Amino acid sequence: MTNSKGYRRGTRDMFSRPFKKRGTIPLSTYMKVYKTGDIVDIKGNGAVQKGMPYKAYHGKTGRIYNVTPHAVGIIVNKRCREDFLRRVKENERKLKEAKEKGIRVNLKREPAPPRKEHFVRRIGNPIALAPIPYEFVA
Questions:
Q1: Which PANTHER family does the entry link to (predicted)?
Q2: Which of 5, 13, 47, 15 is nearest to 30 (CA)?
């Protein structure tokens, strides 16, 4: 079994349950309400084998697009974890401050504006560049 290519290979520690956390899953886990548009982290639970995510998605962040009685559908487009979650927290803080002041704030990202105009100073006279004609040496 040097390099077995099984579906769950290399997940010995990934899906194992923590120390003293083995056994039946509490009912509060199943009672959580998930809504479309929520941002969630994908975490596989080794105590329930049915419906586990593939190992590549373990620990990724995604957005819920579908809620069914037994599962939720999550879209994971790209690596967005640190930067995206930081921006979400910052935008929530800005929105809260704006509501207290009673003003409207733009939370969208703006592209970088063009650079300011300036003069380019030259040192000495400009050099004229021209191609050198090809000489066949035989």
A1: 60S RIBOSOMAL PROTEIN L21
A2: 47
Domain spanning 27-75: CATH superfamily: Ribosomal protein L21 (2.30.30.70)
Could you count the other beta carbons within 10 Å of the beta carbon of residue 85? Answer: 13
Q: What would the two tokens of residue 37 be?
A: 């548009």
Q: How far apart are CA 30 and CA 15, in angstroms?
A: 19
Cα atoms in the 13 Å half-sphere on the side-chain side of 76: 17
Neighbour order of strands in the sheet with 61-67: 39-41, 61-67, 72-75
Summarised one tens digit per residue, pLDDT across range 71-129 is 999 999 866 577 888 999 999 999 999 999 999 999 999 999 999 999 988 888 888 99
